[in-house]
Amino acid sequence: MRVKITGEDLYISAKLDAETDILYWFKKCMFNELFTFYRVGTIANSMPAPTTLPDTSPASVLNLAYSDNIGPFNITGYGWCGGNHPYLDEVTRTARNVGYHIYVDGKEIKEDMSALTKEIKITVTNEIMNPSKADTSSGKTLLNDVLCIETVSYSVYRNNIQVSVSHEFPE
Questions:
Q1: In angstroms, how far is CA 140 from the centroid of its own chain?
Q2: Is the pTM of this model over 0.70?
Q3: CA angle, corner 35, sides to 22 and 152, nearest 5?
Q4: For the residues 129-142, what does the mean pLDDT come to?
C-alpha cells in the first residue's frame, strides 16, 4: 500500500488486482465533521506497485460519505444524532470529533508524509451529543450534554477496511 498524509487528509492506494488500484480518502466529513473514510474508489493501474498518487480522483467511485458509515442514534421526540445528522433545527451539530490518531506500520504519524506501507490503523474518538438536553437560553441552540463517547478503529490492509465501533455511555 501507499499512504500519503497532507494536513487532515489521509490518502491510501492499494492493489485490488493486477489491473486495478483501490483508493481510500479519509478526512473530516459528513454534517458533523467526523473523521472517517470520505471516498473509496478504483483506478486502472497495471504496474506491480500501487499508484504513487493516492490522492488522485478515482475513475469509479464505490462509496461516498453522503450517509452514515458509522452509527447514529434516534432519540424519540428529538430525532437523529451523530454521523450525518443535524439537530431538529437543521443547523446545530449533534456530534463532534474529539481526535484521531494515524498509525503506519505500528508507528503513530503526526506530520505530513508519503511512503509505502503494509498496514495502516486509524483510531477516532467522537462525542455524540444528547439532543434531548438542548440549551436554547442564549437564543441559539447548544448541545453541551454528551450522550456517549464513540470510539472507532479502522484497520486498512491491502484492499480491505476493517471497522470496529464501540459506544460508552456516561452514568
A1: 28
A2: yes
A3: 90
A4: 94
Provide the domain count of the chain: 1
67 burial type by CB count under 10 A (0-12 exposed, 13-18 middle, 19+ buried):
exposed
pLDDT of 19 higher than 70: yes
Helix (H, G, I), strand (E, B) or coil at 97: strand
Rounded Cα–Cα distance for residues 27 and 10 (Å): 6
CA distances (Å), 152 to each of 73, 77, 81, 138, in order? 15, 27, 16, 33
**Residue 65 reports pLDDT greater than 90:** no
Cell digits of residue 26: 479519509
- Amino acid identity of residue 54, one-letter, is P
DSSP letter (8 states) at residue 50: P
Whether 141 contacts 92, CB under 8 Å: yes
- For 80, phi then psi, to 5°, come to -85, 150
Whether residue 36 contacts residue 70, with contact meaning beta carbons closer than 8 Å, is answered with yes
- Mean pLDDT on 15-37: 95
